[in-house]
UniProtKB/TrEMBL annotation, chain A:
<dbReference type="Pfam" id="PF03845">
    <property type="entry name" value="Spore_permease"/>
</dbReference>
<keyword id="KW-0813">Transport</keyword>
<keyword id="KW-0812">Transmembrane</keyword>
<feature type="transmembrane region" description="Helical">
    <location>
        <begin position="272"/>
        <end position="294"/>
    </location>
</feature>
<dbReference type="GO" id="GO:0009847">
    <property type="term" value="P:spore germination"/>
</dbReference>
<feature type="transmembrane region" description="Helical">
    <location>
        <begin position="117"/>
        <end position="134"/>
    </location>
</feature>
<dbReference type="GO" id="GO:0016020">
    <property type="term" value="C:membrane"/>
</dbReference>
<feature type="transmembrane region" description="Helical">
    <location>
        <begin position="336"/>
        <end position="355"/>
    </location>
</feature>
<keyword id="KW-0309">Germination</keyword>
Automatic annotation (TrEMBL), chain B:
<feature type="domain" description="Spore germination protein N-terminal">
    <location>
        <begin position="24"/>
        <end position="221"/>
    </location>
</feature>
<feature type="domain" description="Spore germination GerAC-like C-terminal">
    <location>
        <begin position="231"/>
        <end position="399"/>
    </location>
</feature>
<keyword id="KW-0449">Lipoprotein</keyword>
<dbReference type="InterPro" id="IPR008844">
    <property type="entry name" value="Spore_GerAC-like"/>
</dbReference>
<keyword id="KW-0564">Palmitate</keyword>
<dbReference type="GO" id="GO:0009847">
    <property type="term" value="P:spore germination"/>
</dbReference>
<dbReference type="Pfam" id="PF25198">
    <property type="entry name" value="Spore_GerAC_N"/>
</dbReference>
<feature type="signal peptide">
    <location>
        <begin position="1"/>
        <end position="20"/>
    </location>
</feature>
<dbReference type="Pfam" id="PF05504">
    <property type="entry name" value="Spore_GerAC"/>
</dbReference>
Length: 367, 403
């Protein structure tokens, strides 16, 4: 195979945006409000900052090892076995994350829209669609993502703006929240940060970039766009419902679209529009998780091609998706997994420090 | 060969979920689309009516019975445009059904038991709750309505003076579908500045808020088949406790900074016995809160802009700016007094529909966190806080007549 042209900065940004925005956006406001009351936007902002540190570190590392992915350079930095262990943990984490993401998606669809359809069918169709697409290379991957990004961002923005006519700015005050509880708040920050974990996919993309030295730029733009969007979602929902009402809702973002109508009575409820976009957003997220899993695994096993695994993982994701008994248990698991996952996604900081200490890339450039 | 057929089999198997079409497809004529529901109390005699549909043993349920009256649209008979010809007039566009139950969902399930088609609530536009029920508390309905994914938050909830079921059957001439008329009534009242925008979603938010109480339109049936907005029912917590008059809704809207004015009031022209009708066109309100000596204080500064629409027959001319000024002063005096009276009444009944508590919570969090914290506490404090009202009235227009 001829060496393909690299992935551009804009494409990397798009991949980052559409990978991060996924199922989590439906519950994000609830998590943030539970943690910070009216301080929810602040919690979100802090969560975003934690996440952006993660992306910053990965970008730094990628600039040090321009031709290697995180699986490969962690072996270089930590040594063969430790590095492999880390790689393995990362893959395992992404498998669970993707499986649970598919489940969360199914759960929302079955509760809110397709009440008759078995959840298994919804989950498997979504996973199957991702399976079809992961067989392609990173370029197709990048194209698919950059194609969908506008369809995810634009309608979401429109819904936010339209919903603001029912907003009450009092609900946004005080900015630190009424019952400030530092522990709850910090926990909330971590949970919000864990929503950004699919952004870790960039560690896979950076080495394939046309100009790896621009990795930082792409990473920071991606994080900036998603965080602005997430903070806006939280602000809009808090201002429309008020903190106490948000706490009563399972998926506040979905509820917002149900309380918003298009002016002129063209569309009296926007949830239909929103769900269509949201399906796309979830697809791109699952797609990324899937891609990360099989690409990383093939790198870990030093295989030339990742297509081999595409079908192999479908049942694994499916089984993981079916583990939780109900929504409440599912969210408990997702929270726990997310919190543990932070350890994995924060670990690159140690990689970076070790790499700096051992002055690694200089010795092995071109490896 | 074998390999090939296995392959084909796999492909077919995988295509099954993709090609099976919509599992949830529900034809419009096969669903019972409910446009409006009314909730009433069950008179003791009716209680035995229900079959054993949602419970094994009647005695286990302590919840009081309610009667649900639903208006179901009849497919094909809802006119989509202006009526052409007189033929279709005989058929009723809706069908009204009743069911009783211990809770709203119980009643729904009982209703489903006597209905061939599946109930669909996606087009529910109006929920009429009778005053009797509203006074006992509405939170027991809200749970179902929030959980049900088909119900929109933009549905209106209203309180009715008489039996709510009657609203499902009144058929005003303006609208062929009775339920939609009630919806149009409240929707248009919002557009005309006669009622603050307060669909169910907003009402629920108010109920949940720690520093605010909810309010709903209060309707009354007039002359058998017409409906009137009789006032605004205010709540304390989840219970309705009283009604204020329509003219007071205007004052209330002033206090919560709803800009569009819709009400007019007769104002006595000073030094005469004549009156002019001054209509509020726009209001602008600035609310300030403060904590003084450990007690919250609210300052309302309301600016009215109005128009003289009519004067009672008499000799007085209103072409003199000085007289207009006097009228402005008089209007200010009268409205201020009326608003103060309204506020005092609501304070006494501990219903903070103005949301002053929310303001204190937002603007003085340290006070709120130490002294208030819960809605009950707020009600106690709200009772005797000072609320100052400062008003100005500006008359901008007198219409097209000189004198």
């Amino acid at each position: 195979m001829a060496k393909p042209k690299g992935i551009t900065v804009a494409q990397t940004t798009a991949i980052l945006i559409s990978s991060i925005i996924g199922v989590g956006v439906l519950r994000l406001p609830l998590t943030a409000v539970q943690a910070g009351d009216t301080g929810a936007p602040l919690v979100t902002l802090l969560g975003v900052s934690v996440a952006s540190v993660g992306v910053w570190v990965v970008a730094k590392l990628s600039m040090r090892f321009p031709n290697q992915s995180i699986i490969e350079y962690s072996e270089v930095i930590l040594g063969k076995w430790l590095g492999r262990l880390y790689g393995f943990l990362m893959i395992a984490f992404f498998i669970i994350l993707t499986g649970l993401g598919a489940r969360e998606f199914g759960e929302v669809v079955v509760t809110a829209v397709l009440k008759e359809t078995p959840i298994e069918v919804i989950v498997i169709v979504m996973l199957f669609m991702a399976t079809m697409f992961v067989r392609h290379d990173l370029h197709t991957f990048a194209y698919i993502h950059s194609f969908y990004v506008p369809f995810i961002l634009a309608p979401t923005l429109i819904i936010i703006v339209l919903s603001l006519k029912n907003a009450n700015p009092l609900y946004l005050q005080p900015v630190f929240g009424n019952e400030l509880n530092i522990n709850a708040m910090l926990y909330g920050v971590l949970i919000v940060a864990s929503l950004f974990q699919t952004g870790f996919i960039v560690s896979l993309i950076f080495p394939a970039m046309e100009k790896p030295e621009k990795a930082m730029k792409a990473g920071m733009w991606g994080i900036a766009v998603t965080s602005v969007l997430y903070v806006m979602v939280v602000v809009a929902i808090l201002a429309v419902f008020g903190p106490e009402e948000v706490k009563k809702l399972n998926w506040p973002t979905l509820e917002l679209t149900r309380a918003t109508s298009f002016p002129g009575k063209i569309l009296q409820r926007l949830d239909v529009v929103f769900l269509a976009i949201w399906v796309t957003a979830v697809f791109t997220t699952i797609f990324s998780g899937y891609m990360f899993t099989i690409r990383s695994l093939s790198q870990l096993l030093k295989l030339r091609d990742h297509k081999l695994f595409s079908m192999f993982f479908l049942p694994i994701f499916f089984v993981i998706a079916m583990v939780p008994e109900n929504v409440m248990q599912m969210y408990k698991i997702i929270e726990t997994v997310g919190a543990w996952g932070l350890v994995i996604t924060i670990a690159p900081i140690f990689l970076l420090i070790t790499a700096k200490a051992r002055k690694l890339p200089a010795k092995r450039s071109g490896a | 060969m074998l390999k090939k057929s296995i392959c084909t089999f796999c492909v077919i198997l995988l295509c099954l979920p993709l090609l099976s079409g919509c599992w949830d497809s529900l034809d419009i004529e096969k669903s019972a689309t409910i446009l409006g529901i009314a909730i009433d109390k069950v008179e003791s005699g009716d209680a035995q009516e229900t079959g054993k549909i949602t419970h094994f043993d009647e005695d286990d349920l302590t919840e009081e019975m309610i009667r649900l009256t639903a208006q179901i649209s009849v497919p094909g008979r809802i006119p989509l445009g202006p009526e052409t010809g007189g033929g279709g007039g005989e058929q009723e566009p809706v069908w009204v059904l009743r069911a009783i139950g211990h809770t709203i969902d119980d009643a729904m399930l009982n209703l489903q038991q006597e209905l061939a088609d599946e109930i669909f609530l996606g087009h529910l536009r109006i929920i009429v709750v009778s005053e009797e029920i509203a006074r006992e508390g509405v939170e027991r309905f809200n749970d179902f309505l929030r959980r049900q994914p088909e119900v929109r938050r933009t549905t209106w909830m209203v309180v009715s003076k008489e039996e709510a079921a009657r609203y499902m059957e009144v058929a005003p001439k303006l609208e062929r579908v009775p339920g939609l008329y009630v919806t149009a009534m409240v929707d248009n009242a919002v557009d005309l500045g006669k009622f603050p925008n307060d669909f169910a979603g907003i009402f629920w938010s108010h109920l949940s808020s720690k520093g605010q109480d909810g309010y709903l339109p209060y309707l009354k049936i007039k002359d058998e088949d017409n409906i009137e907005i009789e006032g605004l029912s205010y709540f304390k917590g989840e219970k309705m406790i009283g009604v204020i008059d329509p003219i007071e809704i205007g004052l209330f809207m002033g206090a919560i900074n709803q800009k569009q004015g819709g009400y007019g009031a007769f104002i006595q022209v000073p030094d005469t016995k004549e009156r002019v009708l001054v209509r509020a066109e726009r209001r602008n309100t600035k609310t300030k809160t403060a904590i003084k000596d450990g007690k919250p204080e609210v300052h309302l500064r309301i600016r009215y802009e109005g128009e003289i629409e009519e004067k009672t027959v008499g000799n007085i001319n209103i072409d003199d700016p000085k007289i207009i000024q006097k009228i402005e002063k008089q209007a200010t005096k009268e409205t201020t007094a009326a608003l103060k009276k309204l506020i005092a009444k609501l304070q006494e009944e501990e219903s903070d529909i103005f949301g002053f508590g929310e303001r204190i919570r937002a603007e003085h969090p340290s006070y709120w966190n130490k002294q208030v914290k819960t809605k009950e506490n707020w009600h106690n404090i709200y009772k005797d806080i000072d609320i100052h009202v400062e008003m100005t009235t500006h008359i901008r227009r007198v219409g097209m007549k000189e004198k």
